[in-house]
Amino acid sequence: MEKEKVMLSKFNVETYLKDGDAVVAKLKEVEAVADKVHDKGYENIFLLGMGGTYDELEPIQYIMNKYSEVEVHLANAAELNVLGNKRLKKGSVVITASASGDTKEIVEAVEWIVKEGIEVVAFTKPETPLGKLATTIITAPVTTGQCEYSYLMFDVLALRLLNRRNEFPKYDAFIAQTKNIFHDLVDIREKFDAKADEIAKAYALEPYSIFVGSGALWGETVLFSMCILEEMQWVRTRAVSSPDFFHGTLELVDKDVPVFLFKGEDECRKLDNRVEAFAKKFTDKLVVIDTAEYAIDGLDPEFRMIVSPMILTALVTERLASYYETYTKHNLAYRRYYRQFEY
């Protein structure tokens, strides 16, 4: 039986898949950068982010810590600029990203980091302030800002580094099994679309919502609640990790407080289940979004954890956000303060 075609509002499938193909074609270049970094040698890795980029790098740290003994630090650029870090030295390699290439905190950090003789790999455009500073540039060949493009390129850089350290021997299998992932993510959007509309209609105008996640999904949980709902929708949220939920935030739960739980597929799922059991008892507004319910064809179970942030970003940062915009009547592109003037 032919599958019913779902029309995705505010989403151009053709452009998305074209850009996705361009990202996949770019992965050989990303792999070559990883090989260059490995061959040169390094003592430790610093993942340098700010705001949403920091959140996107969070699962990369999680993945590298899971598979590797290499020392991996996730650094907030604004903090690094004032605090420094004694472990950041000539033997380090810094990996950062900025779509605009002018994120002021990242640019400031890279300026002094490069002066210290430290290798900086930046996902950005070469003509930008960051692009002119970084020692190695990877340019994302896309016109749309879908987070999953970044996730895949970050994954390939990180996993190739680990593969060269003999810590991720199934690298080639991962690459082969994710070559059509953007087609799968369109299917996932279609499956979730009606539910996204239903959730947004019910909760977009709530005065306060709690968002809970953990493990490989923690960064995406923060990104959605902070960068999308707070910044782009002016919705009041609280992001809390599943382990921390029971040390403060649980006291704010009552039957009228929405609790969104983003359930992952790694070891921390046990912690997510504990939150779910609690929330079922004490709120009438529990929303559980479980990445395990959404298939990626031909993907080995052990790779599910790696791609779970891509699944979640397709579900919420893209689909759910688009319906929030519909019901809040607040344009996702409109800001009062962010980048509107100097502060």
TrEMBL record:
Q: What is this protein called?
A: Fructoselysine-6-phosphate deglycase
| PROSITE patterns in UniProt | SIS (PS51464)
Membrane-spanning residues where? Answer: none
Q: Which InterPro entries match?
A: FrlB_SIS, Fructosamine_deglycase_FrlB, SIS_dom, SIS_dom_sf
Q: Name one GO biological process term.
A: fructose 6-phosphate metabolic process
Q: Which organism is it from?
A: Longicatena caecimuris
Residue ranges occupied by any SIS domain in the UniProt entry = 33-167
Q: Which domain of life is it from?
A: Bacteria
- MF terms in GO: carbohydrate derivative binding; glutamine-fructose-6-phosphate transaminase (isomerizing) activity
